[in-house]
Amino acid sequence: MEKVLVAGATGATGKHIVDLLKESPYFEPFAMIRKEDQKVSFEAQNVNWVLGDVSEDIKHTCKGMDKVIFAAGSGGKNVVEIDQEGAKKLIDASQFNKVKKFIMLSSMGTDQPKQSDDLQEYLEAKQNADRHLKNSDLNYVIVRPGALTNENPTNHIKLAHKLNSQGSISRADVAQTLVRVLKDGIADKETFEILKEGILISKAIDNNSVGIG
Known about the structure:
By secondary structure, this protein is an alpha/beta fold.
């Protein structure tokens, strides 16, 4: 089984990711936590944890990891420190430790942050992080969902390099997408957007008609 570090494991989307990885026959989750007292819930689930804060040196967190998912977020606070520089630190740590694949949870609108009045700073931070990943030597997938909701999973998504519409998607369906692209040979060095509804997640990702896979 491949070891997968999940940055943002204590967040709403991260918890979905860890739950999916727990059930996978291919991957073993390692929850990245900022404070040691956060280990309790993961130990109760028999999930491994790694102590690391993206605002500090985190090179050690990727040691021995096969793959990494960055699903951490500032929640609109300290976007440069967390969403940009924190992501860049984890990218550099992954490259240093020769991680095989890096999955980035990004956001729709990241390619044109100036078009958003409310989220411009956040989207610029995400854009800089995405660019840093693309310029690294890592194999990567950048997933850009619409607005995240806490709705139940539908197991269906719309997927394209660029979707010509706005909308939302459940965190559960985003998590499924992130875990799906962990596999070798799936969407390598691709960037794409996703929204709710559409076709089955597995089919959307594996289907060459959308230009990835």
